[in-house]
Amino acid sequence: MPINESLVQDIVQEVMAKMQIADASSGKHGVFTDMNDAIAAAKKAQQTVRRMSMDQREKIISIIRRKTKENAEIMARMGVDETGMGNVGDKILKHHLVAEKVPGTEDIKTEALSGDRGLTLVEMGPFGVIGAITPCTNPSETVLCNAMGMIAGGNTVVFNPHPAAIKTSIFAINLVNEASIEAGGPDNVACTVENPTLDTSNVMMKHKDIPLIAATGGPGVVTAVLSSGKRGIGAGAGNPPALVDETADIRKAAQDIVNGCTFDNNLPCIAEKEIVAIDSIADELLHYMVTEQGCYVINKEEQEKLISVVLANGRLNRKCVGRSAKVLLSMIGIDVPDNIRCITFEGEKEHPLIATELMMPILGIVRAKDFSDAVEKAVWLEHGNRHSAHIHSKNVDRITTYARAIDTAILVKNGPSYAALGFGGESICTFTIASRTGEGLTSASTFTKRRRCVMQDSLCIR
Q: What is the pLDDT, as a whole number, of residue 166?
């Protein structure tokens, strides 16, 4: 039997990748057994970082960018293997987005006010040691983008990652510290604990040396941070609706919505979670979704089966989050070809698979009799999270009306949701979108405090 050289090469590459992952996960820079020790180490490192020039900080960040690209596939595979969520290809793209579009020191700006009575400078200074809680949905991506922004602002950071993604998170934290050391900076610019728990999170939130906490996760963790008595940045839940009216390019809308919904199996919090379609174009939209975009329509009986699986006992089944449409359908006894990438059906806005943020490639369609009805239903479905929303329309007045009514941190018009993160759109990239506390897309400037320096009656030379 002849040897298939291409197959042998593929096997060798897969084995080598797994060996790299095993070796990489053993990195221990910034990793401690006790949260108090992690905070102490980060505090010591911050004394050096705060005195570093912008050029020195930017050198660290540029090396983080390079290392992120070099290790994108490793971190993508680690994330999927450890959490079982998402897919490798899309996670690789997300890491490249982090490397290329997360702002660095260019986001730190000084404002100068000059007048008859002198000169005032308003500068962005560091908070010190920032506490960060990160999710299992985008573990390494969140660690890396947070670390880059926080270091650019002169801070160091202590992470309490989600326990379900600790290996992947530690890999990213180790990468950040290796970048700092390579740039001539200190170790422990990013720290964590080997076994993050609610207890270690509580220690971090109550510690006297943590003035600011940034939480990326569900509503529970954000509420805990905002109840901590400290300044908090809360990036919480969303249930982004995609509104489609009769003026839209319906074929393109179908493509954009399904592409956005299925990206990394719907893990991004900005992803389309449901559709509100004006009745006159709903059938056409569904036609393109099914015939061209790999959507599978489930009937009433199948909907009930899916509800019993993904919302077991009325609660979100974590084992279903970030799984592909094919896997989810197999859980209710439906076998579909590999080109099926999204599950769809029609229902009222109160339908459990529509009203609940699922983080799965499931797109329920809600019909609306006219645009006003569509806006009302979309606002209800967003549940006041003020996170993200999407619209497909060529009517500027309608887009404006919708934007004002939905009042979200992100609104994507006539494109897939991921355009908001700079993937096919003009935007910075971040994986901490603080809708609840109002910062929106966080970046380096978010993690700084404003400081005013006044020179009276001097240095105004006009």
A: 97
DSSP-assigned beta bridge partners for residue 243? 276, 391
State both tokens at 354: 């529509």
Q: Are strands 440-441 and 433-434 parallel, antiparallel or unpaired?
A: antiparallel
Alpha carbon distances (Å) from 143 to 166, 235, 274, 348: 11, 14, 28, 38
Rg (CA), the chain: 23
User: In this model, does residue 7 exceed pLDDT 70?
Assistant: no
Rounded to an integer, what distance in angstroms lies between the CA atom of residue 375 and that of residue 397? 13
Q: Is the pLDDT of residue 227 over 90?
A: no
Strand order from edge to edge, sheet including 31-32: 31-32, 190-193, 156-161, 129-134, 212-216, 231-235
Delineate the domains of the chain, giving CATH numbers in brackets: 5-236+441-451 (3.40.605.10), 241-427 (3.40.309.10)
Backbone angles phi, psi at 86, to 5 degrees: 75, -170
**Residues 366, 276: contact at Cβ < 8 Å?**
yes
Which residue in this structure is represented by tokens 């993508």?
76
Tokens coding 401:
């009306």
Nearest-angstrom CA–CA distance, 131 and 147: 11
370, 393 Cβ separation under 8 angstroms? no
Alpha-carbon dihedral sign for residues 53, 57, 63, 65: negative
Burial per residue of 23-35, b for 16 or more beta-carbon CB atoms within 10 angstroms, e otherwise: ebbebebbbbeeb
pLDDT tens digits along 67-116: 999 999 999 999 999 999 999 999 999 999 999 999 999 999 999 999 99
Looking at residue 436, its pLDDT comes to 84
How many Cβ atoms from other residues are within 10 Å of residue 99's Cβ?
Answer: 22
Neighbours of 257 (CB within 10 A): 31
Q: E strands of 162-257, at which residues?
A: 190-193, 212-216, 231-235, 241-244
Enter the DSSP assignment of 21.
H
Outline where 84-218 has alpha helix (H).
88-101, 139-152, 166-182, 198-206
What are the distances in angstroms from CA 245 to CA 279, 285, 375, 441?
9, 10, 10, 27
**What is the number of alpha carbons within 13 Å of residue 44 lying toward its C-beta?**
10
Residue 19: its pLDDT value, please? Answer: 42
Structure tokens at 101: 């579009």
What span, in angstroms and rounded, lies between the C-alpha atoms of 140 and 95?
Answer: 8
Over the chain, what is the mean pLDDT? 93
CB-CB contact of 142 with 134 (8 Å): yes
**Mean pLDDT score, 295-306:** 97
Contacts of residue 375, Cβ cutoff 8 Å, sequence gap at least 6: 243, 401, 402, 405, 406
